[in-house]
Specification:
heterodimer, A: 117 residues, mainly beta, 4-stranded antiparallel beta sheet, B: 112 residues
Protein backbone atom coordinates (compact mmCIF):
# COMPACT_ATOMS: atom_id res chain seq x y z
CA UNK A 1 0.00 0.00 0.00
CA UNK A 2 0.82 3.65 -0.01
CA UNK A 3 0.52 5.29 3.37
CA UNK A 4 0.52 9.00 3.98
CA UNK A 5 0.45 10.42 7.47
CA UNK A 6 -0.27 13.88 8.81
CA UNK A 7 0.61 15.43 12.11
CA UNK A 8 -1.09 16.75 14.09
CA UNK A 9 -4.52 15.32 13.42
CA UNK A 10 -6.17 18.14 15.28
CA UNK A 11 -4.92 21.49 16.52
CA UNK A 12 -6.47 24.43 18.33
CA UNK A 13 -4.56 27.67 18.39
CA UNK A 14 -5.03 31.30 19.29
CA UNK A 15 -5.49 33.95 16.65
CA UNK A 16 -2.18 35.40 15.54
CA UNK A 17 -0.10 32.31 16.16
CA UNK A 18 1.45 30.05 13.53
CA UNK A 19 0.73 26.38 13.07
CA UNK A 20 2.84 23.80 11.26
CA UNK A 21 1.31 20.69 9.71
CA UNK A 22 3.48 17.79 8.57
CA UNK A 23 2.75 15.41 5.72
CA UNK A 24 4.82 12.25 5.36
CA UNK A 25 4.83 9.45 2.83
CA UNK A 26 5.67 6.43 4.97
CA UNK A 27 6.44 3.68 2.49
CA UNK A 28 7.27 5.46 -0.74
CA UNK A 29 9.10 8.47 -2.06
CA UNK A 30 7.08 11.41 -3.25
CA UNK A 31 8.65 14.02 -5.48
CA UNK A 32 5.36 15.86 -5.49
CA UNK A 33 2.94 16.47 -2.68
CA UNK A 34 -0.25 18.49 -2.72
CA UNK A 35 -2.03 20.51 -0.07
CA UNK A 36 -5.80 20.82 -0.05
CA UNK A 37 -8.31 22.62 2.07
CA UNK A 38 -11.81 21.34 2.72
CA UNK A 39 -14.74 23.14 4.29
CA UNK A 40 -17.61 21.22 5.90
CA UNK A 41 -19.73 19.35 3.38
CA UNK A 42 -17.66 20.74 0.53
CA UNK A 43 -15.19 19.34 -1.92
CA UNK A 44 -11.42 19.50 -1.75
CA UNK A 45 -9.81 22.70 -2.94
CA UNK A 46 -6.21 22.52 -4.10
CA UNK A 47 -4.06 25.11 -2.38
CA UNK A 48 -0.60 24.36 -3.68
CA UNK A 49 1.69 21.82 -5.26
CA UNK A 50 4.81 21.04 -3.28
CA UNK A 51 7.88 19.90 -5.19
CA UNK A 52 10.88 18.40 -3.44
CA UNK A 53 13.81 20.74 -3.52
CA UNK A 54 12.03 23.64 -5.15
CA UNK A 55 9.45 26.30 -4.42
CA UNK A 56 5.83 25.38 -4.14
CA UNK A 57 3.35 26.36 -6.81
CA UNK A 58 0.28 28.07 -5.38
CA UNK A 59 -3.20 28.12 -6.82
CA UNK A 60 -4.82 31.41 -7.70
CA UNK A 61 -6.08 33.21 -4.64
CA UNK A 62 -3.90 31.32 -2.16
CA UNK A 63 -1.47 33.61 -0.32
CA UNK A 64 2.00 32.12 -0.40
CA UNK A 65 3.16 34.25 2.53
CA UNK A 66 0.20 33.07 4.55
CA UNK A 67 0.58 29.38 3.78
CA UNK A 68 4.25 28.50 3.78
CA UNK A 69 5.18 25.19 2.21
CA UNK A 70 8.47 23.38 2.53
CA UNK A 71 9.30 20.08 0.84
CA UNK A 72 12.77 19.34 2.10
CA UNK A 73 12.88 15.61 1.47
CA UNK A 74 11.22 12.97 -0.66
CA UNK A 75 9.03 11.92 2.23
CA UNK A 76 8.14 15.12 4.03
CA UNK A 77 6.27 18.30 3.20
CA UNK A 78 5.15 20.89 5.73
CA UNK A 79 2.45 23.53 5.61
CA UNK A 80 2.73 26.44 8.02
CA UNK A 81 -0.30 28.64 8.52
CA UNK A 82 1.18 31.94 9.61
CA UNK A 83 -0.62 34.46 11.79
CA UNK A 84 -3.68 32.26 11.85
CA UNK A 85 -7.14 33.81 12.03
CA UNK A 86 -10.52 32.22 12.67
CA UNK A 87 -11.27 32.15 8.94
CA UNK A 88 -8.29 29.82 8.51
CA UNK A 89 -10.14 27.19 10.50
CA UNK A 90 -10.60 24.26 8.17
CA UNK A 91 -9.68 20.68 7.38
CA UNK A 92 -6.28 20.56 5.70
CA UNK A 93 -5.40 17.45 3.72
CA UNK A 94 -2.20 16.53 1.96
CA UNK A 95 -1.61 14.00 -0.76
CA UNK A 96 1.50 12.44 -2.21
CA UNK A 97 2.21 11.11 -5.62
CA UNK A 98 4.68 8.28 -5.99
CA UNK A 99 7.89 9.13 -7.75
CA UNK A 100 8.57 7.26 -10.95
CA UNK A 101 7.06 6.62 -14.33
CA UNK A 102 3.42 5.71 -14.48
CA UNK A 103 2.70 6.35 -10.84
CA UNK A 104 -0.07 8.89 -11.14
CA UNK A 105 -2.33 8.17 -8.24
CA UNK A 106 -2.40 10.60 -5.37
CA UNK A 107 -2.62 9.04 -1.93
CA UNK A 108 -4.14 11.17 0.77
CA UNK A 109 -3.29 11.73 4.38
CA UNK A 110 -5.92 11.55 7.12
CA UNK A 111 -6.23 15.31 7.35
CA UNK A 112 -5.58 17.92 10.02
CA UNK A 113 -8.43 19.82 11.56
CA UNK A 114 -7.40 23.35 12.49
CA UNK A 115 -9.47 25.51 14.78
CA UNK A 116 -8.33 29.08 15.34
CA UNK A 117 -9.89 30.82 18.30
CA UNK B 1 -14.55 27.12 -16.66
CA UNK B 2 -13.27 23.76 -15.63
CA UNK B 3 -15.48 21.83 -13.31
CA UNK B 4 -16.22 18.33 -12.25
CA UNK B 5 -19.67 17.86 -10.85
CA UNK B 6 -21.92 15.16 -9.55
CA UNK B 7 -25.53 14.79 -10.48
CA UNK B 8 -26.92 13.93 -7.05
CA UNK B 9 -25.74 15.21 -3.69
CA UNK B 10 -27.17 12.25 -1.79
CA UNK B 11 -27.89 8.67 -2.79
CA UNK B 12 -29.76 6.33 -0.49
CA UNK B 13 -29.74 2.59 -1.19
CA UNK B 14 -30.79 -0.57 0.56
CA UNK B 15 -28.09 -2.85 1.88
CA UNK B 16 -27.34 -5.51 -0.70
CA UNK B 17 -28.48 -3.43 -3.65
CA UNK B 18 -26.14 -2.06 -6.28
CA UNK B 19 -25.21 1.63 -6.19
CA UNK B 20 -24.41 3.87 -9.10
CA UNK B 21 -22.79 7.23 -8.50
CA UNK B 22 -22.46 9.58 -11.44
CA UNK B 23 -20.06 12.34 -12.31
CA UNK B 24 -19.86 14.83 -15.17
CA UNK B 25 -16.63 16.48 -16.18
CA UNK B 26 -16.04 19.35 -18.55
CA UNK B 27 -12.37 19.24 -19.52
CA UNK B 28 -11.82 17.35 -22.75
CA UNK B 29 -8.10 17.35 -22.05
CA UNK B 30 -8.50 15.16 -18.97
CA UNK B 31 -6.89 11.78 -19.47
CA UNK B 32 -7.02 10.25 -16.02
CA UNK B 33 -9.89 9.87 -13.59
CA UNK B 34 -10.10 8.65 -10.02
CA UNK B 35 -12.85 7.82 -7.56
CA UNK B 36 -12.23 8.50 -3.90
CA UNK B 37 -14.22 7.58 -0.81
CA UNK B 38 -14.16 9.89 2.17
CA UNK B 39 -15.52 8.96 5.57
CA UNK B 40 -16.37 11.62 8.09
CA UNK B 41 -13.28 13.29 9.54
CA UNK B 42 -10.87 11.32 7.37
CA UNK B 43 -8.87 11.88 4.23
CA UNK B 44 -10.01 10.58 0.84
CA UNK B 45 -9.32 6.93 0.18
CA UNK B 46 -8.45 5.72 -3.32
CA UNK B 47 -11.06 3.36 -4.76
CA UNK B 48 -10.37 2.94 -8.44
CA UNK B 49 -8.94 4.82 -11.39
CA UNK B 50 -9.26 4.75 -15.15
CA UNK B 51 -7.33 6.23 -18.03
CA UNK B 52 -8.99 7.89 -20.97
CA UNK B 53 -8.02 5.07 -23.33
CA UNK B 54 -10.35 2.74 -21.46
CA UNK B 55 -14.15 2.59 -21.14
CA UNK B 56 -14.44 0.31 -18.17
CA UNK B 57 -12.35 -0.95 -15.32
CA UNK B 58 -13.32 -3.36 -12.60
CA UNK B 59 -12.07 -3.78 -9.10
CA UNK B 60 -13.30 -5.66 -6.10
CA UNK B 61 -17.06 -4.96 -5.97
CA UNK B 62 -16.52 -1.70 -7.86
CA UNK B 63 -16.62 -0.79 -11.52
CA UNK B 64 -15.81 2.52 -13.13
CA UNK B 65 -17.29 3.44 -16.49
CA UNK B 66 -16.02 6.27 -18.65
CA UNK B 67 -17.97 7.80 -21.52
CA UNK B 68 -15.76 10.36 -23.18
CA UNK B 69 -18.39 11.29 -25.74
CA UNK B 70 -20.62 12.85 -23.11
CA UNK B 71 -17.88 13.42 -20.53
CA UNK B 72 -19.46 11.15 -17.98
CA UNK B 73 -17.93 8.97 -15.32
CA UNK B 74 -19.74 6.55 -13.05
CA UNK B 75 -18.90 4.34 -10.11
CA UNK B 76 -20.85 1.17 -9.58
CA UNK B 77 -20.73 -0.58 -6.23
CA UNK B 78 -22.08 -4.11 -6.15
CA UNK B 79 -23.91 -5.48 -3.11
CA UNK B 80 -23.63 -2.24 -1.18
CA UNK B 81 -22.76 -2.65 2.48
CA UNK B 82 -23.17 -0.34 5.48
CA UNK B 83 -19.42 0.21 5.43
CA UNK B 84 -19.78 1.78 2.01
CA UNK B 85 -21.60 4.75 3.55
CA UNK B 86 -19.42 7.79 2.87
CA UNK B 87 -18.97 10.72 0.52
CA UNK B 88 -17.69 9.75 -2.91
CA UNK B 89 -15.69 12.15 -5.04
CA UNK B 90 -14.69 11.85 -8.63
CA UNK B 91 -11.55 13.63 -9.74
CA UNK B 92 -10.12 14.37 -13.16
CA UNK B 93 -6.61 15.20 -14.21
CA UNK B 94 -6.13 17.41 -17.25
CA UNK B 95 -3.30 15.97 -19.32
CA UNK B 96 -1.33 19.21 -19.32
CA UNK B 97 -1.16 19.40 -15.53
CA UNK B 98 -0.37 17.10 -12.66
CA UNK B 99 -3.28 18.38 -10.63
CA UNK B 100 -6.56 16.75 -9.73
CA UNK B 101 -9.85 18.61 -10.02
CA UNK B 102 -12.45 17.28 -7.62
CA UNK B 103 -16.18 17.10 -8.06
CA UNK B 104 -18.60 18.19 -5.35
CA UNK B 105 -19.18 14.78 -3.86
CA UNK B 106 -22.12 12.42 -3.47
CA UNK B 107 -23.13 11.16 -0.06
CA UNK B 108 -24.00 7.48 -0.15
CA UNK B 109 -26.34 6.32 2.60
CA UNK B 110 -26.84 2.59 3.01
CA UNK B 111 -30.03 1.54 4.77
CA UNK B 112 -29.92 -1.74 6.69
Amino acid sequence: GAVVSQHPSRVICKSGTSVKIECRSLDFQATTMFWYRQFPKKSLMLMATSNEGSKATYEQGVEKDKFLINHASLTLSTLTVTSAHPEDSSFYICSARRSGTGQETQYFGPGTRLLVL
Amino acid sequence: GESVGLHLPTLSVQEGDNSIINCAYSNSASDYFIWYKQESGKGPQFIIDIRSNMDKRQGQRVTVLLNKTVKHLSLQIAATQPGDSAVYFCAERPSNTGKLIFGQGTTLQVKP
